[in-house]
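Hey, resending since the last one bounced:
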Amino acid sequence: MMMRRGDVPWGRGGGPRSEPPPADDAPAWIGGALPDAWFQGPADVTIDRDEILIVGRLHPPQVADDATDADRAAAEQGRIAGFRETTRDQRIGIAQQLERRYRRKVSWGVLVGDTRELFTTHSAPVMTRLRQSERQVLDTLVDSGVARSRSEALAWCVALVGQHADTWLTELREAMQSVDELRRRGPAV
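The structure tokens again:
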């Protein structure tokens, strides 16, 4: 069997697994599918090979002028809980359509005031090989109680690198988008 670039040798069913279809039009599709009343403005859509994450800003709850920070936080949590419950069936329907169309899991989240909450997020397994010195870093994090397992320690490391290298990673993603655009405009072979 001939493998194409991007194919993974063994998928979930033991056979070959190819990359999901492009999702360049997913933000526009999602914008058309979401009810206008749900969010203040368009939702933020983040897409990778495994997941489409949709995060929208909710209308803020009304609180008294003399409300404490704790009262505001509680009101924001109440707004999030209400949104999550009242939109559940519709969100599931939209997610099912997206999953069929783009072959990716769909996750949801909201912002309200200073509160950001993600729900129904997808955790994708990632295989890697590490040398002893690299495994020792993970084991130190586990032994110190920072993480419960090597898997959690690796996720912690990736998150930490992401925080500290955000500017560099943003530039790298932009450069990759430019390369993809140049490939699309290139001659067909």
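The first strand starts at residue 44 and ends at 47.

Sorry for the duplicate.
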